[in-house]
Write a structure and sequence with these properties.
mainly alpha; 9 helices; 65% helix; 142 residues; Globin-like
């Protein structure tokens, strides 16, 4: 999936007014996801995303997929912390942030290989995983 298509998918899924808002939301969710995922999984995820999008997340004002070379573990935090970080980064309230996370997860599900989304799903706690597309949550292998 190309950058414009992915941002358009997020814009439509989250009912955002413009592409700028969709970009801000996508960046907020991906930066937070990069903090929560194990380094190897985050690297693989970002390798399958458009370079323009990855560059936004790696910007100096966003914590992103700059993972440590020692392969350190992901930060451990739950859904309220995940949503709180997204809300802060997206400059939104937490109810909106939940919607944003769902829209970005839907776009990721369409953009990356199914095997990789399974790894992402498996790496997340169930409460955060509950925001993944319904088919992923219902997956009996989870």
């Amino acid at each position: 999936m190309q950058y414009d298509e992915l941002i358009g998918h997020v814009q439509a899924g989250a009912a955002l007014p413009d592409r700028g808002a969709a970009t801000r939301v996508t960046r907020a969710v991906l930066a937070t996801l990069a903090e929560r995922l194990p380094d190897g999984t985050a690297r693989h995820l970002f390798a399958q995303l458009p370079a323009d999008l990855v560059a936004l997340v790696e910007g100096p004002e966003a914590a992103g997929p700059d993972v440590s070379p020692d392969g350190s573990a992901a930060e451990r935090f739950d859904l309220p912390t995940f949503v709180g970080r997204v809300a802060w980064r997206a400059e939104a309230d937490e109810d909106a942030a939940v919607e944003y996370v769902g829209a970005v997860f839907e776009a990721l599900d369409a953009a990356v290989a199914p095997e990789l989304m399974k790894k992402v799903t498996d790496a997340l706690p169930r409460d955060i995983g509950s925001l993944l597309p319904t088919a992923r949550v219902a997956d009996p292998g989870r």
